[in-house]
Specification:
With 244 residues, the protein is of the alpha/beta class. The protein contains 6 helices and 11 strands. It has one domain: Glycerol-3-phosphate (1)-acyltransferase (3-Layer(aba) Sandwich). The chain starts with a strand and ends with a strand.
Length: 244
């Protein structure tokens, strides 16, 4: 069976077995919903959930302004998401157990992490969704994106789903403290898009253009003060992408 250009055959997914994580992810989602978003974080609104594909692989591409951003996305999405995160999160006191139990893909930054690429492709071949923060670090406004998401999308054929995150600074915070007096976390989910077939084996220069075009699609969903490197939307092009 072929789904969006990927064979959905678990025998081809290497070491990744979705059923291995099903029960623990169900429990963790319950804890996040009834614990985290009752006591530690406030969710204001979510726009564009209808853009999330019902099935098949996809790459969620988010901006990253606060530690809690990926957890907010995991909480609101109707499907399970497998995030990529810097390998150091596994060593965080107490909270480091969460990525281990969930099956988060650890990434060694500032190098080509072939193991992380392989694991990401396995998840996509299994018909699931991965989450990528292409800036590689947190910040109040967009930095130039790294090419990893474009590489994975072009090689797999999976669509990219841009997700703009805002209002998460200050969380997690105990209920009734200062951050809770603001509006809380807000998500805007944009239209999914794919890279055109001729970019399936794109080289470095093309990957740079593909990344910037994807980042402009994300920037368009953000308020101007969050757009940073991609503030000038008049420079946005769509030569390498096509909307689904």
């Amino acid at each position: 069976m072929v789904v969006d250009g990927l064979e959905q055959n678990h025998s081809l997914t290497g070491g990744y077995n979705p059923s291995r994580y099903a029960m623990r992810r169900r429990v963790l989602r319950f804890l996040v919903k009834w614990g985290g978003f009752t006591l530690l974080a406030k969710l204001d609104r979510v726009e564009g959930l209808e853009n999330v594909p019902d099935q098949g692989p996809a790459i969620l591409m988010i901006n990253h302004i606060a530690f809690i951003d990926p957890i907010v996305v995991l909480h609101v999405m109707p499907r399970n998401i497998v995030p990529l995160a810097k390998i150091e999160v596994y060593d965080y006191p107490i909270v480091g157990i969460f990525p281990r139990l969930w099956g988060v893909i650890p990434v060694r930054r500032e190098e080509v992490d072939r193991r992380a690429i392989q694991q990401s492709m396995e998840v996509l071949r299994a018909g699931e969704i991965i989450l990528v923060a292409p800036e590689g670090t947190r910040g109040p406004a967009l930095k130039q994106g790294k090419e990893g998401a474009a590489y994975l999308a072009s090689r797999s054929g999976a669509p990219i789903l841009p997700v703009a995150v805002n209002g998460t600074i200050g969380f997690p915070a105990i209920r009734f403290t200062k951050p809770w007096k603001g509006p809380g976390a807000r998500l805007r989910i944009g239209r999914p898009f794919r890279y055109r077939p001729e970019y399936q084996r794109a080289g470095r220069e093309q990957l740079r253009q593909m990344t910037d075009e994807a980042m402009y699609a994300l920037a368009e969903l953000l308020p101007p003060y969050r757009r940073g490197y991609y503030a000038d939307l008049s420079k946005a092009t769509q030569e390498t992408i096509e909307f689904c």
